[in-house]
Amino acid sequence: MMTKKKVIQIGIVSELTGLTERQIRYYEDRKLIFPDRSKGGVRKYSFEDIQTIMDIHTKLTDGFHTVELRRMLAGS
User: Fold this and answer.
1) Which of 24, 26, 33, 47 is nearest to 76 (CA)?
2) pTM for this model (two decimals)
3) pLDDT tier at 12 (50, 70, 90 boundaries)?
4) Which residues contact 72 (CB under 8 A, 6 or more apart)?
5) From which residue to which does any coiled coil extend (predicted)?
6) Could you read off the pLDDT of 25-46 as tens digits, one per residue?
């Protein structure tokens, strides 16, 4: 599936989502998303990851905590 192929760099994800690169890296630090890394260490995301990032942002805006989101994502 093309939606699962991790080829999109963080700058593009930032443009597509309207979030800062720092916010996206925070979601990774909190173990909410898991981008692949190139040999040079560049983060690579899929379109599926981008949808997850948007869902995370919406839930955080609605008052959820990252611990709750981690549990929710683990169950899906």
Assistant:
1) 33
2) 0.90
3) very high
4) 59, 64
5) none
6) 999 999 999 999 999 999 999 9
CATH number, domain containing residue 60: 1.10.1660.10
**Which residues on neighbouring strands pair with residue 9, listed in sequence order?**
44
Quote the number of domains for the chain.
1
Domain containing 12 equals 2-74
List helix spans (H) across 1-76: 10-17, 21-29, 47-61, 66-75
Based on C-alpha coordinates, what's the Rg of the chain?
Answer: 12
Whether the pLDDT of residue 57 is over 90: the answer is yes
